[in-house]
Amino acid sequence: MAAEAGVMTVSASDQGDGPILITEAAPSHEAEHARRRRKYSIMMSVRLACVIAAALTYQIWWLALGFLLLSIPLPWMAVLIANDAPPRKREDVNRFRRTAREVEGTSHPVIDSAD
Questions:
Q1: pLDDT (tens digit, 9 = 90+) per residue, 2-17?
Q2: How far is Cα 7 from Cα 34, in angstroms, rounded to an integer?
Q3: Are the beta carbons of 28 and 5 closer than 8 angstroms?
Q4: Where is the composition biased (Basic and acidic residues) (predicted)?
Q5: What is the C-alpha separation between 14 and 95, in angstroms, rounded?
Q6: How is residue 18 annotated by DSSP?
Q7: Is the pTM value of this prediction over 0.70?
Q8: Residue 41 and residue 74 in contact, taking contact as beta carbons nearer than 8 Å
Q9: Phi and psi at residue 94, in whole multiples of 5°?
Q10: What angle do CA 24, 26, 27 make, to 5 degrees?
């Protein structure tokens, strides 16, 4: 079994007597928010590193310009990625499966008590 964000899932090899997942609950809001903040912080740290690298390589104008041009779209991309909702995951989970019931096709004798 794999535990991911507080949700227990069952892989195909674990099916059997284990618990059955009855929900498709997403990660908690706090966990999702922390993941988005972490992505944003990483991208903005890369931008800061690009600006510092541009300042350190100002003698080589084409390299400094390259670092600056690389740092320009990073805030926009960071906001887009941080605000993007995670994709829904397709998981093979152990769900309750009801056996199919057939409708009886035979006729039953009717007893009529009106004599």
A1: 444 455 554 555 555 6
A2: 17
A3: yes
A4: 90-105
A5: 12
A6: S
A7: no
A8: no
A9: -80, 95
A10: 140
Centre a 10 Å sphere on the Cβ of residue 97 and count the other Cβ atoms it contains: 7
User: CB under 8 Å, gap of 24 or more: what pairs does 20-28 form?
Assistant: 20/94, 20/95, 20/96, 21/93, 21/94, 21/95, 22/95, 22/96, 26/86, 27/86
Q: For residue range 14-34, what is the model confidence (pLDDT) as tens digits?
A: 555 666 656 666 667 788 888
What are the structure tokens assigned to 108, written together? 């039953």
Distance of alpha carbon 51 from alpha carbon 45, whole angstroms:
10
Percent of the chain past pLDDT 70, that is, above it, reads 57
Q: What token pair was written down for 14?
A: 């674990």
Q: Is 17 exposed, middle or buried (0-12, 13-18, 19+ CB in 10 A)?
A: exposed
Q: Exposed, middle or buried by CB within 10 Å (0-12, 13-18, 19+), for 85? A: exposed
Residue owning tokens 């400094």:
64
Tell me the C-alpha distance between 104 and 93, whole Å.
32
